[in-house]
Amino acid sequence: MTDDERELHAELARLQQEHRDLDAAIEALHQSPAPDLLMLQRFKKRKLHLRDRIAFIEDQITPDIIA
């Protein structure tokens, strides 16, 4: 495994953890009696951005298979 691949795997793990953390934060906000809707919207937007970045990195790691 090259240094670039190791860096991609490390970034992927970090982003996946942040995505899980945001998921927990969003759930906690939903459970609160008076959720901060602006914060909820920001968390969801960040989570979508992370999902896109995770998908991009996974595409970089997975080799292209030509059928």
What this model shows, in words?
It is a single chain. The chain is mostly helical and 67 residues long. Helices cover 81% and strands 0% of the residues. The protein contains two helices and no strands. Helix 1 (3-31) runs antiparallel to helix 2. The model has no long low-confidence stretch (mean pLDDT 93).
H/E series? HH
Beta-strand content estimate:
under 5%
Q: What is Rg?
A: 16 Å
- Largest sheet, described in full? none
Quaternary organization: single chain
Tally of strands: 0
What is the topology?
Elements: H1 3-31, H2 37-61
Helix pairs in contact: 1-2
Summed up, what is this model?
With 67 residues, the chain is mainly alpha-helical.
List keywords for this structure.
single chain; 67 residues; mainly alpha; 2 helices; elongated
